[in-house]
Amino acid sequence: MAGETTPHAANKGGWHSGRFAHTFSAIDLGTNNCRLLVARASIEGYEVIDTYSRPVRLGEGVALNGSLCGEAIERTVHALSVCAAKMQRHRVSRARNIATEACRRAGNGDDFLALVKQRTGLDFEVIPPAEEARLALASCENLLDPEIPFALLIDIGGGSTEVSWIRVTQRANCFGGVATELLDMTSVPWGVVTLTEACVSGLPREQRATRACYDDMVERIRVDLRPFCARHGIGGAIARGDVQMVGASGTVTTVSAHHMGLKRYNRTLVDGSRIGREHILRICDQLSEMSVAELTGMPCIGTERADLALAGGAILEAVCRQWQTPMVRVADRGLREGVLMDLMRRADREADPFFCRDE
Length: 359
Prior knowledge:
alpha/beta, Nucleotidyltransferase, domain 5, 6-stranded mixed sheet, 14 helices, about 45% helix
């Protein structure tokens, strides 16, 4: 598989076999961020050894020009060089590197990834939206309540927003365990970068967007959500109390941190937290009335996220207005964590002497 390295492990057995024989890494190269996670397996899941995240804005201008620009390419290659050095230093033995919307959409995406291979040695796999949804679900599964039969998983990215419709059941012979089935997903072609460029690009940092502009941003998202909602009767299921919602994105975690009054972001407090729909709508309304300069001064937003916060709030508000679940579970996790779970399960299968490998 492209983007994955799977050298054969020695058959040592016990704690030195399967997932315990390797150091794993995952890179998620999105429209806005480049993220690396390096980990080793532990009894309770995995132990993080190293992380890296940079807002490289790879997809800057792609929606308008159809191609990746030189400055974005250089920023991203530099960040990926840092990732490659970290992977080498930690002697990573199994890795998968994935790229999403920016590389899917850009006409020069393949050329860019060839350049990445030449300059960093890293192979990347451009994954489709359905694979994004599957990986996001794998990372968030244990946040779901097995007593509520359906779930919406919302993943707000830089170039697109993925919405997954999930069946939830209790895993057999496991108290409190969750089993899931991804019933369907949709990819809305708007994320925080693309929506910002389409609606407020060129607006001075000190100038607030108009209410009409913000409302247009919300409506653009809802237009794409309505057919998916109707196809699955999601509104009726919510009215019956049969739907839970999980939000997995920087926008959702930032809103949760703001709601908790955090002066500095704390993943331990945010991941797994819950925030009511009315609180979300109140915060999004507050964000909509602020300029980029004003947003910069807000805790947990800062300079790096301020110019994207308006679009993020509009997308989250659109989701909460379309689907009136009373509570949102917050996930500070995503594709990297889903990739790690996949890699560890595969290592276990290949260490099993009864596992049949494809010839």
